[in-house]
């Protein structure tokens, strides 16, 4: 029998196996891209903070970072919010898992991060202004080095719950403003803008420290305004 130069057509089973393999590879690639924060029109924002951002006292699902991401879903550049906040942490003070704000930066900020938003922290009460400024400066510089070249650094100081504000909270605020100025980060002052102090009965829970569900909704709105500035 004469030989043929034409390739033998693939059997139906072989064709189906090839298609399944291609689809499987595509799904794996898509999942990898999604986990790396590289989906188109997704701006990766990392929240560095303490228990005011974790949902302690309510739930993680009701925390303002989750609400912020949900609110921004309809925007032209949807947010992918990565919540690195840890209960008990500060710039100087380690949190429940042993991490400071600087350690949160090292773990969660990467070259795909377009915004790093720091919030707090009154957990640094007892540290000197110099200690806070130095630790914050180190954290901001680390974020600048690890994030995307065009990333924005936003530093939100600790809020006050009283009028006039506690002097020690004001001292932390001033130390962070100095560090933000050194690092070229935008600074937002919740004390001067009276984010919470006039509405603590509604916004702060019975422990006198952590936001209620309404408090997290308020913070999400405020953070959305901050991002739009």
Describe the structure.
It is a single chain. This protein has 229 residues and is of the alpha/beta class. The protein has 2 domains: 31 residues; 189 residues, 3-Layer(aba) Sandwich (Rossmann fold), CATH 3.40.50.1110. Helices cover 41% and strands 13% of the residues. It has a 5-stranded parallel sheet with strand order 2-1-3-4-5, with helices on both faces. Strand 4, helix 5 and strand 5 form a beta-alpha-beta unit. The longest helix is centred in the first third of the chain and has 24 residues. It is globular and about 40 Å long. The N terminus is likely disordered.
Note the beta-strand portion: 5-15%
Helical proportion, percent range: 40-55%
Compute the number of structural domains.
2
Average pLDDT number: 86
What class do helices, strands and sheet pairing give?
alpha/beta
Shape: globular
Tags for this model:
single chain; 229 residues; alpha/beta; Rossmann fold; 7 helices; 41% helix
Summed up:
By secondary structure, the chain is of the alpha/beta class. 41% of the residues lie in helices and 13% in strands.
